[in-house]
Design goal:
The complex is a heterotrimer of chains A (521), B (257) and C (121). Chain A is mainly alpha-helical and 521 residues long. Chain A has 20 helices and five strands. In chain A, helix 10 packs antiparallel against helix 11. Classes of the chains: A mainly alpha (521), B mainly alpha (257), C mainly alpha (121). Chain C: Belongs to the complex I subunit 3 family.
Chain lengths: 521, 257, 121
């Protein structure tokens, strides 16, 4: 019997994931053993502390370039940069999730199992503090995201995908107000997400078939699903490439679903609208970083040798995504749905950057992810503030005249919308400039043309909201803008400040992305 | 030569037994899949799916993956399909989907696209794999199938394996969050309180006598009697009222020997 | 003949199927037939059979929780099997890895137990 030994593991390099995984387990323990009254504070401190600690270790590992844990995990520039981005955006999201001063008990329901509309439900909606299970769930999701961008083979990537998705499905169902919408959103997200995961697995199997006969890391010629073997097979496999193309297509379906690219975007507006707003922000910022991080690694490292084959198809997907997002955003009447379609369009711009398979494309996409993440979190932070007696007032007609009633927050939101529209002095401009520059450098001029056109269409709904807020008289039904509690104020400040700084002085972050933009082979 | 090795099918050539089993079970698997989509009753759908899953389990065994074949049968057919049936019972056995289309032409489009996708993948795979022979099976199963899986699980995928526990925890938390209502103190009867209520006056603590326990004949029409001879309602189900037999009913019917 | 090891299992399956078919088929032929309403009533483990409501009767959600927990630990056990078979080859590190895995899944158990998910009332 041959001995099987543990593969060498660089524990330093995977510390961020271990910290978050450990903290989420401790979080579940807290849920089990700490009295109800103290859970919120304990969980909040635990989550923020764990994410900060993980962030510190990411910075500490900044120079690590290694493939570890038996080849399953690659720690390199893009991994560390994206992990850092996910963690920073994760801190901001946790601040939004932890806010309890806007509404008695916070934005989450106390017991999701109580039937909607029953007496017990009405009682818990106005009285009981929200469930704190949301914290370990978000930590689990963050663990999955960190693993997702670090995975160096398709199986580990799939586990990461599931670890990040499963908690998100649950978090969507926990809204305090409009619970039926929230549960419907969770169900839709879960059904379609499971379907997309199945596509990913199908593609994985086909790619594994394609690598047959290629020597893998473990010494035999049975192939494998790690990216080095796939890349070698793409270069010189004798198996018919039909397997490879079908595999890339199916894997791309799975990843583009999470990234909310058309035509796999149909879940986005319903889920963004139904989910509790802090969770929507979390999905729009962190999930997008994770999804594109994985997509970048797959496209660059594994299938980089076949970029001529997938670029036209994914280019068409990118163009479709930008146009669908922009055109449908024009017709929306709900601010959360508007931001959802804007997020779809932004997935298109990100895809334009990701399709430039070179260093510049990688760097600009990573920059765009960070810039967009901060702006969208700030946007959803403002949405949580505009309320009436029934919770958030998200219908656009209710926002008319908000500028007269609360000039400060209307001003902030105007700035955020201008950033989405890509006006200079905001991060939206620098990031769009960067990805379009990378795309034209890689010769995808037509994508840049479509991108600029769709940006012009997309500017219209943003400006309509701005005009509505400032040029209408406030009516009877105009809701009030609450003064944010400390946590939301902090999140909002961070988001707006980052949007401004990355618009005015983006050099240091651009430098960082350029230095990080190299995968380990 | 260990037992595990003899169990494994050879990598290259297809043996007669394998071919025969495949051609018997493949139509059955297909039948199960079609039946699942076709059946109007959700429980029938689930049982058709069990047929497909069982056939797939045997296929895995045929293809020299006995472990995954058994897991397919134990976890999928055994546990997950039973969860399916549980959920059907939660929703109600007779409840059926509304067949009214909210988007017109959706069903036709779904059938067309599904068939198109199947044809695309099917012909693509057939053309790609025609004449290709499988490689690597012997190497993968060199020390036995389960041992090979253990080797991969604890070397290359050891991190993925550990992280799988996160999925299991999330599933438990999710089941609790979405399906469990916590009772506060005072809402639940303690064991002592339950016992007191059981023996309180007006409640009969023992189990009810079964039908005909003290009856003189096995006929359901015979009323149940308590030991003191009085008639009791606590014998039959509520559908069957307590009544005395008429003399014609009590007369021998010729069925007793 | 590599598939020959499975022949006993197939034989057992066939025997089982034959036996059950035989039992079902023989009972109505040789058994006495004396029906009455009590015998024809549905048997529900001694509970009084109640008429089924429209919709077939819906089960309480508690069953779902139990089934879900069963699946979680079922999957955990599946992972134990290859580990147990290769225990000698894996040695100490495999033992530690497995303890870690079981320990983490145990957290789920502790959570469910403390939250009252195992109570039946």
């Amino acid at each position: 019997m041959t001995e099987i030994g543990l593969p060498p593991i660089n524990y330093g390099a995977i510390t961020p994931m271990l910290i978050l995984f450990g903290a989420s387990c401790v979080g579940v323990f807290v849920e089990a053993f700490v009295p109800k009254a103290q859970r919120h504070l304990v969980q909040l401190v635990l989550s923020l502390g764990a994410i900060t600690a993980a962030l510190v270790t990411v910075v500490w590992q900044a120079d690590t370039r290694t493939v570890t844990a038996g080849g399953a995990i690659a720690i390199d520039g893009p991994t560390l940069f994206l992990q850092g981005a996910i963690l920073v955006l994760g801190v901001v999201s946790i601040l939004l999730i932890g806010e309890r001063s806007l509404e008695r008990g916070g934005p989450f329901v106390a017991q999701a199992a109580i039937v909607v509309g029953s007496d017990a439900d009405r009682n818990q909606t106005v009285r009981q503090p929200g469930a704190t299970d949301i914290y370990p769930l978000s930590l689990f999701a963050l663990t999955g995201m960190l693993l997702f961008v670090a995975a160096n083979d398709l199986l580990t990537m799939f586990i990461g995908l599931e670890v990040l998705s499963l908690p998100l499905y649950l978090m969507c169902a926990l809204a305090r107000r409009r619970r039926l919408l929230s549960q419907e959103a969770a169900l839709k997200y879960f059904m379609l997400g499971a379907y997309a995961s199945a596509f990913f697995l199908f593609g994985l199997a086909l790619v594994y078939g394609f690598t047959a006969g290629t020597p893998s890391g473990s010494g035999d010629n049975g192939g494998g699903v790690d990216f080095a073997t796939i890349a070698a097979a793409v270069r010189n496999s004798e198996v018919s490439p039909a397997l490879l193309y079908a595999g890339i297509a199916l894997i791309a379906v799975g990843l583009l679903f999470k990234a909310a690219a058309a035509p796999f975007h149909v879940w986005t507006p319903d889920v963004y609208q139904g989910a509790p707003t802090p969770v929507t922000g979390f999905m729009a910022a962190c999930t997008k970083v994770a999804a594109f991080g994985a997509l970048l690694r797959v496209l660059h490292v594994a299938f980089g040798g076949a970029s001529w084959a997938y670029t036209p198809v994914l280019g068409a997907v990118a163009a479709l995504t930008m146009l669908v997002g922009a055109v449908l955003a024009v017709t929306q009447t709900d601010i959360k749905r508007l931001l959802a379609y804007s997020s779809v369009a932004n997935a298109g711009y990100l895809l334009v950057g990701a399709l430039a398979v070179n260093k510049q494309g990688l760097a600009s996409t990573m920059f765009y992810l960070v810039a967009y993440g901060f702006t969208v979190l700030a946007g959803f932070a403002v949405v949580t503030l505009v309320r009436d007696a029934d919770g958030e007032a998200t219908h656009l007609s209710r926002w008319a005249g908000l500028g007269r009633r609360s000039p400060l927050f209307a001003g902030v939101f105007t700035f955020i919308l201008l950033a989405f529209a890509g006006i200079p002095v905001t991060s939206g401009f620098t990031s769009k400039f960067a990805v379009f520059g990378a795309a034209s450098g890689a010769g995808h001029t037509w994508l840049v043309v479509v991108g600029v056109l769709s940006s012009m269409i997309l500017a219209f709904p943003y400006l309509r909201v701005v005009v509505m807020m400032w040029l209408s008289e406030p009516g009877e039904s105009t809701p009030s803008v609450l003064v944010p509690g400390g946590l939301t104020a902090a999140a909002l400040t961070i988001g707006v400040a980052a949007t401004l700084v990355l618009g005015v002085a983006p050099e240091s972050l651009l430098d960082l992305t350029n230095r990080a933009a190299e995968f380990v082979p | 030569m260990t037992t595990a090795q003899t169990v494994l099918a050879a990598g290259g050539a297809v043996s007669t037994g394998e071919a025969v089993t495949f051609w018997i079970l493949a139509p059955l698997a297909l039948l199960g899949a079609i039946g699942m989509v076709w059946a109007r009753n959700a429980v029938h759908s689930a049982l058709w799916l069990v047929l497909t899953m069982l056939c797939l389990g045997v296929f895995y065994v045929l293809q020299a993956g006995p472990f995954i074949g058994m897991v397919q049968i134990i976890v999928y057919t055994g546990a997950i399909m039973m969860l399916f049936l549980f959920v059907l019972m939660l929703v109600g056995r007779d409840s059926s989907d509304s067949l009214i289309e909210t988007l017109r032409g959706q069903r036709v489009a779904a059938v067309a696209l599904g068939l198109g996708f199947a044809a695309l993948i099917g012909t693509g795979l057939f053309r790609a794999l025609e004449g290709t022979s499988a490689v690597g099976l012997d190497a993968a199963n060199a020390n036995g199938n389960v041992q090979g899986i253990a080797k991969l699980l604890f070397t290359k995928y050891v991190f993925a394996f550990e992280v799988t526990s996160a999925l299991l925890i999330t599933a438990a938390v999710g089941a609790m969050v979405l399906a469990h209502v916590e009772r506060r103190k005072g809402e639940r009867l303690s064991q002592v309180e339950q016992m007191k209520a059981r023996f309180a006056p007006g409640n009969y603590p023992g189990p009810k006598p079964g039908p005909g326990v003290f009856a003189t004949s096995s006929s359901v029409a015979t009323p149940g009697r308590l030991p003191d001879g009085t008639l009791t309602d606590g014998v039959h189900s509520q559908i069957l009222p307590t009544r005395e037999l008429t003399s014609s009913e009590a007369a021998p019917k010729g069925t007793e020997k | 003949m590599s598939l020959s090891a499975w022949v006993p299992i197939v034989g057992l399956l066939v025997l089982g199927a034959l036996f059950s078919l035989f039992s079902v088929a023989i009972a109505p032929i040789v058994g006495p037939k004396r029906y009455n309403r009590a015998k024809l009533e549905a048997y529900e483990c001694g509970i009084e059979p109640t008429p089924q409501p429209i919709g077939g009767g819906r089960f309480p959600i508690k069953f779902y929780l139990t089934a879900m927990l069963f699946i979680i630990f079922d999957i955990e056990v599946i992972f134990l099997y290859p580990w147990a078979v290769s225990f000698n080859a894996l040695g100490l590190f495999g033992f530690v890895e497995m303890l870690l895995f079981i320990g983490t899944v145990f957290i789920a158990y502790a959570y469910v137990w403390r939250r009252g998910g195992l109570d039946w009332d």
